[in-house]
Specification:
Strand content of chain A: 25-35%
Order of helices and strands of chain A: HHEHHEEEEHE
Low-confidence stretches of chain A: none
Structural class of chain A: alpha+beta
Strand order of the largest sheet of chain A: 1-3-2
Oligomer: homodimer
Number of strands of chain A: 6
Mean pLDDT of chain A: 93
Distance between the termini of chain A: 41 Å
Amino acid sequence: MKEMLNERGYKATPARLAILDIFSKSKFPINAEIVYKNISKIKALRKTNEATIYRTLLSLESCGILKRINLRKNSAYFELADDHHHHIVCTKCNEIEDFENSELEKILGGIVVKSSKFKNVREHSLELFGLCRMCA
Amino acid sequence: MKEMLNERGYKATPARLAILDIFSKSKFPINAEIVYKNISKIKALRKTNEATIYRTLLSLESCGILKRINLRKNSAYFELADDHHHHIVCTKCNEIEDFENSELEKILGGIVVKSSKFKNVREHSLELFGLCRMCA
DNA sequence: TATTAAATGCAAGTTGTTTGCAAGTAGAAT
DNA sequence: ATTCTACTTGCAAACAACTTGCATTTAATA
């Protein structure tokens, strides 16, 4: 993880390493508050400031390590950007399931070709919202 | 427009009618600030309070007249919910183009079938981000 | 036209996030 | 190992986008 940061011109500070670790252990996207709570549990880092969390999330996002996800919440959720997939979110209990679909990606890749105004598409955000079996 | 509101149990106040009118004339999604600026231009409504805009947007969203859109901005954008489509957003100049694709919708409709945890999907949000011809 | 639940204006509060600045620290250079 | 310096952090204050409480007004119905 240290190299991952240094390669991109970032110093590998304890807070950053811990935050990366928190993300790598999380099975679903998390927000600044959750990162803060988790990092606060580590004795050596218990005094980490919230501003540090926000700044770190921004840095890790802009160098491509983290990806920002739209979950229709009023805070920003992130996850490791290592693989491309989307989410199904339960609007009642917030359960999240990942999914991917290559056919879908193919169609999305072709959309811009048909556009008159757009030249290229770099990213897309796709999230499904519904009810999980428990809540339905 | 009056009936549209009354049918759903809302009073057709001048502010609401004006807000609906602003949306029906806008060719792209807009946020509370833009609605506020536009309604302020109308002499009779120039004193309309921002809280009213926020409350109205919420009401119109929850009764299904407006739809909330994720454009990766830090404010909420809305548009009339009359037809289903998605957006391509230029990350540089914010130009927005609508698109729809029936094949895509079909695939999205089938996703939940393959899911172990989810029973049904009610909505989805899909936005593409890239560069328009001008900015590319 | 009188009634009343719903809508509004105003001011203050909240939430999530950002910023300025002084002090601390990782990593490069000695 | 020590020094240097740009990058990081903590802290407190500022911000933006909303939300809320409450007194007043008003659209819709009777």
